[in-house]
């Protein structure tokens, strides 16, 4: 690692902050992620390994790591700058939005995640906030961001639950060893949301939310899914398969006709989807991170009830449908 140029702005924050920075001597802009070294104590080898992995990543739908610098107090990661905004915001700004549009978005993300998996990289925190548009233009590609370094905060990912509650796979909640299939599950959740505007699993109570996930307890609610193709529903069923051994891989998902064929409907669903996004994703609940200690006691309490209700009886109602810069520094 080279030393950071002295003009890099000092960053604050519990773990990291991202600022806009300009490369000295050029007009090139980057997103500069600033990580306090005190947050990395005891994890230096892990960080070095993760940066080495990120340097190998090169894909048109993945935000690239361009360079690494350090100062006495901080580590600086210069990331490719993307300016098109978050996925949901862009959907809300569209003049129209169809199932075909959703299929095209999912195909791009699947291609990126399949590439990561081919390198042995598991994202572990796929969610709409990590899907960004490269540019503000209408034909902009979608970009996957914030992968790999998430395990700096979480430690041993194979034994530690991490991520965002509504997107985590059942095997992660069960504290079983997990791998690439958790990303496919998260893509199933994202695909579901893209077609209706609300999540497949939702409850204000974490124990009940986790119970839904552990059972893969979701529905294609009417009227929100009435105009969605059976092909789309079949695609989602294969991604939200409870058994990770039976769940689609990214390659299988890419070969499904909803992605590779012409089965996605072309009817405008913007009105319904945008209304539900507004109602369901202004909630901090869906943006907060969580760790193992916050839900292990919930899982223990759920254990007995899961056995008693193995017949498949619903344990709760699902009421969520319809619920109410300045001049950049140099680096």
Automatic annotation (TrEMBL):
| Stretch list, region Disordered | 307-331
| Keywords assigned by UniProt, alphabetized | ATP-binding, Kinase, Nucleotide-binding, Serine/threonine-protein kinase, Transferase
Asked if the Swiss-Prot or TrEMBL record annotates the protein with the keyword Signal, the reply is no
SMART domains in the cross-refs: S_TKc (SM00220)
Gene3D superfamilies cross-referenced by the UniProt entry: Phosphorylase Kinase, domain 1 (3.30.200.20), Transferase(Phosphotransferase) domain 1 (1.10.510.10)
Report domain Protein kinase positions.
Answer: 4-259
Name the InterPro entries for this protein.
Kinase-like_dom_sf, Prot_kinase_dom, Ser/Thr_kinase_AS
ATP-binding keyword on record: yes
A molecular function GO annotation: ATP binding
- EC no. given is 2.7.11.17
Q: Which reaction does it catalyse?
A: L-seryl-[protein] + ATP = O-phospho-L-seryl-[protein] + ADP + H(+); L-threonyl-[protein] + ATP = O-phospho-L-threonyl-[protein] + ADP + H(+)
UniProt record similarity statement: Belongs to the protein kinase superfamily. CAMK Ser/Thr protein kinase family. CaMK subfamily.
Designated name of the protein: calcium/calmodulin-dependent protein kinase
What's the source species' lineage?
Answer: Eukaryota, Metazoa, Chordata, Craniata, Vertebrata
């Amino acid at each position: 690692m080279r030393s950071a140029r002295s003009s890099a702005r000092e960053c604050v924050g519990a773990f990291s902050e991202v600022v806009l920075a300009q490369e000295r001597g050029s007009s090139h802009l980057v997103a500069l992620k600033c990580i306090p070294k005190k947050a990395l104590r005891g994890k230096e080898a892990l960080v070095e390994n993760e940066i080495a992995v990120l340097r190998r990543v090169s894909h048109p739908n993945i935000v690239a790591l361009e360079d690494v610098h350090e100062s006495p107090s901080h580590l600086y990661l210069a990331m490719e700058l993307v300016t098109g905004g978050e996925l949901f915001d862009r959907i809300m700004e569209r003049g129209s939005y169809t199932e075909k549009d959703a299929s095209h978005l999912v195909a791009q993300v699947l291609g990126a995640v399949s590439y990561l998996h081919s390198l042995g990289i598991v994202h572990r925190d796929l969610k709409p906030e990590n899907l960004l548009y490269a540019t503000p233009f209408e034909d902009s590609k979608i970009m996957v961001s914030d992968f790999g370094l998430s395990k700096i905060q979480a430690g041993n990912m194979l034994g530690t639950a991490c991520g965002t509650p509504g997107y985590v796979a059942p095997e992660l909640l069960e504290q079983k060893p997990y791998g690439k299939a958790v990303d496919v599950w998260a893509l199933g959740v994202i695909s579901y949301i893209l077609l209706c505007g609300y999540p497949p699993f939702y409850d204000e109570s974490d124990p009940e939310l986790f119970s839904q996930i552990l059972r893969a307890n979701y529905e294609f609610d009417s009227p929100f899914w009435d105009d969605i193709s059976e092909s789309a529903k079949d695609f989602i069923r294969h991604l939200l398969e409870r058994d990770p051994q039976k769940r689609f891989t990214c390659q299988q998902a890419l070969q499904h006709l909803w992605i590779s064929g012409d089965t996605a409907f072309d009817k405008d669903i913007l009105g319904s989807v945008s209304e539900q996004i507004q109602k369901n994703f202004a909630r901090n609940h869906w943006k907060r991170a969580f760790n193992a200690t916050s839900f292990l006691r919930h899982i223990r309490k759920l254990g007995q009830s899961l056995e008693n209700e193995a017949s498949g009886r619903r344990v709760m109602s699902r009421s969520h449908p319809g619920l109410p810069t300045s001049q950049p520094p140099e680096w």
